[in-house]
Amino acid sequence: MRGTQPGDTPQPAAADPFDIVRVAAWLAVTSIIVAALYLGQNVLTPLAIAFLIGFALKPLVTWLTRRGLPRALSVIAVILTLAMLLTAFGFLVASQLGTLSAQLPAYQTTIREKIRDVGESVRAPGMFDGVMRTVDSVQEEVATEESEIVPPLRVQVVGSERQPLETALEWLTPALEPLATAGIVIVFLFLVLLDRGDMRDRLIRLLGGNLHQSTDALEDAAKRISKYLLMQVIVNVSYGVPMALGLWFIGVPGWLLWGALAAVLRFIPYLGPLLSSVFPLALAFAVGDGWEMVIWTLALILFLELISNNIVEPMLYGTSTGLSAMSLIAAATFWTALWGPIGLILSTPLTVCLLVLGRGNPQLGFLDTLLGSTPVLDVPTRIYQRLIADKPEDAIEIVDDTIEDDDVVEFYNDHGIEVLRKVSEDYLSNARPEHRQRVFNGMDALLDDLKEEYPPVIDPAEAPRIACIGGRWEIDSLACEMLVHALGLEGLPAVERREGVVSTRYVNDLDLDGIDLVCISFFSREPATAIKAFCRRLRNRWPGRRIVVALWNAPPAILEPGAIAALGADEVVTTVQEAVLRIQRMVAPETSREHRAADLPENDAARVEALLATNILDGHAREELDALSKRAAAVFDVKFAVISVLSAAKEHVVGKSIDLSGMRDGAIPRDQALSAYAVAEDELLVVGDTKRDPRFADHAQLRLWGTSFFAAAPLKTADGMVLGALSLLDMSPRKMSEEELTLLESMAAAVVAVITGEDAIEPPPRESEKPSTAVAQPVPD
To answer: How does it sit in the membrane (predicted)?
Structure first.
């Protein structure tokens, strides 16, 4: 429709004419690297094996070194131990094979009988008789024709007699090659373990770029690969031991050998489990008089596979954000084509290294996109793309997976408005008319589905007191529809008015009888003129109505108190969450006060008793807690940090990074407690801009300190009691990354250790987005 475009969306930038040159350069570099990997496999494969074994053995070397043993001796001791274990395994395999070789002739009768039974079953009358007769007749005709052909004379070339030395070298060469490779691996392994610092420095130099990112990437790779290999060993042993015991119980000869081989062969992706099952099944076929032993062996293998894949591996690996199934298959194919069977064994660890390097270095970020299992598009972009593709059912499925604990308001706040923001940004630059129609129709279907699945919790007989109006175009009205639904979920009846060009006639035609509050929605980046005109006309035609303006793309200048008053509005909001809280505060102040106040924990009496039992209120750990507060303020680069505990009546500040005003005896009344929400909800609280959050906008203590950012991590003991919070405060609004949140929780755990006198308990890893596909080989976080 005409006159509804935002008009302030920039046109797309012109395409870079040098993109083709950049792509060609990348292809050339990739080709050179692949060629070097293929041609240098004789040197690179031992080096890769040594590095991976080094990752697994590094913790043991470090453990010995920390106990006073020189590093060189630690490395030698670890390598000798590994060599002895491998030698013992080799002797075990050789002895078991020798025993089986001596016993196999005794099983010939059983094998012949079973083959005869299978052959008779195949030769029995059946559906393939006609096909078999046809094949036999063709073979007879071919044999007849060949018999009529006179065979040519054979010419045999007799060479000179070979010397014994040549024969010995011919036999020894294949045996010496793996021994030479093993020797090279041992030399590389010794150097890798002996001087890891120098190699790390050289890798950092090669990676270049940001020193922090390069260091994090290498440390992350080392931790992940070490844990991956350790977990792989544990998983394989937990599979091999029950396999051996089960085969022993069934009566399969060489049960110890097959259990050991099963544990080793499972290091080979995909083929390993298959190969480990072939040998015991074949031997069960040869040994058992009937088919019972084969059936029991097959049942044992299937049972162990199910337990290992669905219980043991998820329990040991935990939540994974590693490699996708497609990347694992592609990596196995790629490395096998380059380096043969060794490449197949090394494919997963090598690909994990590439993935971690891609996550830690912007220059290699494409590796994370290609190999990672986490979605490469955020939730709003994925929803928007499905709407553009005219697949609203897929968008609805994403929304259902995203909404947690039936919190639709949170979805609207974090993702719904962001989808509409992307639509508004693309309206003039990229979207075609059919795209706009698909998006609008898809959003209608999506919102209808949400309203049907999550109906408002209001009395149908209660008349709406709130009207939400779209400012200029369709997207403004879709935001109003979200807001009306969100208000209804909070028990506030509201009605939507469709968008229209704000004019005197439009305002005069509005039906606002019984309406106390009007909320107008704008996505425009320059809405000041339209807002002033609307507010002036609305107050002239409908005096006494309070006006809230929802600016989803608000410029910072318009959010200043003086600017808001100049617009003629009562309040300006920028998010759905803020709009719900402010409107609730204006329409139902009593309910708002109840919602703004933090709830009391169900175990508050036991929690206070646990707090008093620590004797922290007597000030015995004040200096240490002050030091932790200063460390937190420095680490997160905030104005100050405080450590507070919550008693029955007050919040007591037991640690602070700077001197704070406005507190008597280091205490704050409980109804003004900063840690109350963290204690009540037992989860980390982050308020990016306290001035935009009605729960904290009028908080007396925050206003006194002049802070705009607030984050609180609960101080949780081992038995689940939340004593208080470690809080960060800053003068300017800010956001925190997932890594920063994890670090804040870890520092809170250290604070709990000081308060309780017990060892710190690291918090569980924070949940990330679900992998886009099933993960064939989990990668530990």
So the answer is: Multi-pass membrane protein
